[in-house]
């Protein structure tokens, strides 16, 4: 009998302790014993794959964040549960002990139920994480081993342990938060610009929210294509960061008139806009397009905390404006381009490892209450993002106390 969640029992070996837990009442294979009662035939050859690699016991319960109410207010929507069962990996799964998890603007859209209107609470939250494989199924053991560092893009990352399909995991040389910046933010910038940007030398590219998790990669990738890059941001410190990663012209929209500067410095308009803010910034971006210009919409964060998720735009004149300039607007949602994802991530990881890409991580060290540590701090991290304080990708560290028996 293989060790599968579909069998009559599942072997759990957390550290040195193994126990059987009955999952379903299915008939196992039996071997008769003369004059005695039949006994089950057990295949123990792969039990070692269920061992925690530090030699410590994997707990039976864990903390995780769960959406218990649909709301665009993350604090209202999400509850921290202290005693959720640690899940078991299925045949093709990994059990990952999360070390770092990424914060995305769309976490609020997810908690509000905007991506799937049929979803009903409770459900898990969080899209991406990095950690160590501490247990795995038999099929997954063909490609992964206990103790391996992996990153993944899979629902339910805001937890101490997450079951991840092996096909959604990426092996890493080490557990570094910089790698996490690439899973959603980096690939979004890479694929959207590749598919819709038509970047070439000398093109003028405007990136809104340029110092954020995704914006930082849009700036760098456009520069690598030898484009002239303009980036909007909300502070002089962010403007300095943008210059450090190659941005040609940074504009602090808190203290400068973005529209006036663009009209003065770029009277013929910009060729590509990489837009993630929405509302008034979207209107400004449309008005700033050059002839045959392209506007790529990857989000509209300014509206996410509202009941509808949208900020008003001046759309009534949009057809005329696009027609007069032969311009276009393209939307981009990463889930629709997953066929491109492995190639994009592989390329970005190589660039990161070779030092060709700045992968800026914001762990909250400069936030009023300090570094984002533990699941409890995810609420602060989301607030920090929506206050526009972050430079780079916001990442939360999940420390683990491990008492090794090795």
TrEMBL record:
CDD domains: Mgc45594_like
GO molecular function terms noted in the UniProt entry: 15-oxoprostaglandin 13-reductase [NAD(P)+] activity; zinc ion binding
Highest taxon in the source lineage: Eukaryota
One example of a Gene Ontology biological process annotation: negative regulation of fat cell differentiation
SMART domains, alphabetized: PKS_ER
Domain Enoyl reductase (ER): 73-396
GO annotation, cellular component aspect: mitochondrion; peroxisome
UniProt keyword list: Acetylation, Oxidoreductase
InterPro entries per the UniProt record, alphabetical: ADH-like_C (IPR013149), ADH-like_N (IPR013154), ER (IPR020843), GroES-like_sf (IPR011032), NAD(P)-bd_dom_sf (IPR036291), Quin_OxRdtase/zeta-crystal_CS (IPR002364), Zn-ADH-like_protein (IPR051397)
EC number: 1.3.1.48
Family according to the record: Belongs to the zinc-containing alcohol dehydrogenase family. Quinone oxidoreductase subfamily.
Name of the molecule in the record: 15-oxoprostaglandin 13-reductase
Organism annotation: Crocodylus porosus
Gene responsible for this protein: PTGR3
